UniProtKB/TrEMBL annotation:
Family to which this protein belongs: Belongs to the SYF2 family.
Protein name: Pre-mRNA-splicing factor SYF2
Domain of life: Eukaryota
GO BP annotations listed: mRNA splicing, via spliceosome
Organism: Timema genevievae (Walking stick)
Length: 239
């Protein structure tokens, strides 16, 4: 019985035997147990395998492990949510049963701080918020991810000279999911786009509904500058 040891200087040391041999290896410090007679071919194969694995890890993105853990957590969370729905339970309330009140309040504050509702600013910001909301609702499909990775090869991560056009094809499930999201958006828009109550005391400065909405927009942006002009026109003191 002998032991192969890779020291901090990246050399293989064979100890607990009748001889001491050093073999160069581009590997971190680790131990490999084996038995029998000394086999240089076996040691060379193990060395090569470890070098290949380490090279693969070095070529991964810097935050690969964190992204992988997050994707696995999301998959587990979705599975638990599905099980709770099958039992007829509210998953959000089930999760809170295992969280202290102080911790739940802290998470809620953090959630609101991370994605605050600042109201309508402009259409660009509204579109950006909607885009982030849609991608946060997307479920990671690790099986499809690995399939695309093997299919595309080196072009999967892309580069300056990589042409991605024509490499990806939309799946039927992805198209159905997009249609489902669009239908949800339309339904929600119809629910909240209700007619406002008419104010009988308000001034009538429009000729139709479209002109009324346009005047409201003008009032919202330029009302503080035109108020005095309107008052002068009503009093007949305008110059």
């Amino acid at each position: 019985m002998w032991l192969v040891c890779v020291d901090t200087q990246h050399r293989w040391r064979f100890v607990f035997g009748y001889k001491l041999v050093y073999v160069r290896a581009m590997l971190p410090s680790r131990l490999v147990h084996t038995s029998g007679d000394y086999c240089p071919n076996e040691a060379r194969q193990l060395n090569h395998q470890e070098v290949v694995e380490e090279d693969k890890r070095n070529n991964l993105p810097t935050n690969w492990e964190a992204r992988k853990r997050k994707a696995e957590w999301i998959l587990q969370d979705e599975e638990k949510k599905k099980e709770a729905e099958e039992r007829g339970e509210n998953y959000d309330r089930v999760k809170l049963l295992h969280v202290e009140a102080v911790e739940a309040e802290r998470l809620e504050r953090k959630k609101k701080k991370k994605n605050p509702d600042q109201g309508f600013a402009d259409y660009e910001q509204a579109t950006f918020r909607q885009y982030n909301r849609l991608i946060n609702n997307m479920k990671p499909d690790m099986a499809q991810y690995e399939y695309q990775k093997e299919k595309v090869g080196d072009a999967f991560y892309g580069g300056r000279n990589t042409i991605l056009h024509g490499l990806h094809e939309d799946s039927k499930e992805g198209i159905d999911h997009m249609v489902e999201d669009l239908e949800k958006i339309i339904t929600k828009r119809e629910k909240y786009s209700r007619r406002r109550m008419h104010n009988d005391d308000a001034d009538i400065d429009y000729i139709n509904e479209r002109n009324m909405n346009f005047n409201k927009k003008l009032e919202r942006y330029y009302g503080e500058y035109t108020t005095e002009i309107k008052q002068n026109l009503e009093r007949g003191t305008a110059v």
